[in-house]
Write a structure and sequence with these properties.
Length: 258
C-alpha cells in the first residue's frame, strides 16, 4: 500500500474513539447479553457480542450488488443498479454492509436517539470484518464522516457517522477527521423531498474547512444510511472541489436495490 503524507491541517482528528466500552446489550434487540468467556479465550469477537439469532436478522449485502454504489441488484449479470445507470455519481464507488431492514433500522434508531452510542463499536467491527477488502481497495488516506447540522449536533450530542468512522478508523489504522467537512446551512429534511429537490437542496449544503489541505488525497466518506446517493454526491463534490483526488463511500445500510 502506498504511503501518503496527510497534511497536519486536515481538520479535527478523532482520538481515543477506541476507548468506548463495548455494548453490554445486544445491538439488535437491546436486551442484556450474557457474559461470554469464550470471547476472552479467543473466540470470534463479533459472534460473542450480539445474540446469534439477532445477528442473523441483519442482512449482509452480498453479490450481486451494484459495482458503483453497492446496492443489491436483481440479476447476477447486472453490473449497475437502476439508479446508477441514470445518475452520474460524484464518487468513485460505494459499499454498504447491510440492507436497511427493520432490525437494522431499530438498531440505528436506538444508536442515534436512544443513548446507545456504544453500538458504533459493533457496527465498525462488522464493517471491518465484512468490507475489509473494499477498504483496502479504496486505500484511503483519511476517513471523513458525513456531517450533520449544528442544530442536530446540539440536539443529539454526537454525529452518528463520525463515531462509526472513528471506530472503523481505529480498526483499519486510518485517521478520521471529524470536522473537515461541515454542513453550511440547515436543509429541509431530505425524506420530505423528491430526488431533484434533494439534489438542489444539498448542492450547496456541504463545505470543506478553508484551513484544510486535502489536495490529492483519497478519501473514504462514511455515513450510517445510503438512500439515493444524493448526500454522498454533494459531499463528494465538495471534497473534490477542495482538491481530493478520489472519494469512496462506505455506509452501514442501504435501501434494497431499485
Ligand atoms: Zn439480541
Ligand atoms: Zn448503484
Amino acid at each position: 500500500m502506498e504511503i501518503r503524507s496527510v497534511p497536519a491541517a486536515a481538520g479535527r482528528l478523532l482520538e481515543g474513539i477506541g476507548d468506548i466500552v463495548y455494548p453490554a446489550v445486544c445491538p439488535v434487540c437491546g436486551d442484556k447479553l450474557p457474559f461470554a468467556p469464550a470471547f476472552r479465550a479467543g473466540g470470534s469477537p463479533a459472534r460473542m457480542r450480539v445474540h446469534e439469532k439477532c445477528r442473523d436478522s441483519f442482512m449482509l449485502i452480498e453479490e450481486p450488488y451494484c459495482l458503483k454504489c453497492g446496492k443489491p441488484v436483481q440479476a447476477e449479470g447486472d453490473e449497475y443498479c437502476y439508479d446508477c445507470l441514470h445518475t452520474d455519481h460524484q464518487f468513485e464507488r460505494g459499499r454498504s454492509l447491510w440492507i436497511y431492514s427493520d432490525a437494522a433500522a431499530a438498531s440505528i434508531f436506538a444508536y442515534k436517539y436512544g443513548g446507545r452510542q456504544e453500538y458504533a463499536k459493533f457496527y465498525a467491527e462488522e464493517v471491518w470484518r465484512n468490507l475489509k477488502d473494499y477498504i483496502k481497495d479504496a486505500d484511503p488516506d483519511i476517513l471523513v464522516p458525513v456531517p450533520i447540522s449544528p442544530a442536530k449536533l446540539a440536539e443529539r450530542g454526537f454525529n452518528q457517522a463520525e463515531l462509526i468512522a472513528g471506530n472503523i478508523g481505529d480498526l483499519a489504522g486510518i485517521k478520521t477527521y471529524g470536522d473537515l467537512l461541515f454542513r453550511v446551512r440547515k436543509t429541509t429534511p431530505q425524506k420530505e423531498l423528491g430526488r431533484n429537490a434533494r439534489l438542489a437542496n444539498l448542492r450547496k449544503a456541504f463545505r470543506v474547512r478553508e484551513d484544510a489541505d486535502i489536495q490529492g488525497l483519497r478519501i473514504m466518506l462514511v455515513d450510517d444510511v445510503y438512500t439515493t446517493g444524493a448526500t454522498a454526491d454533494a459531499c463528494s463534490r465538495a471534497l473534490k472541489e477542495a482538491g481530493a483526488e478520489q472519494v469512496w463511500v462506505l455506509t452501514l445500510c442501504t435501501g434494497a436495490g431499485a
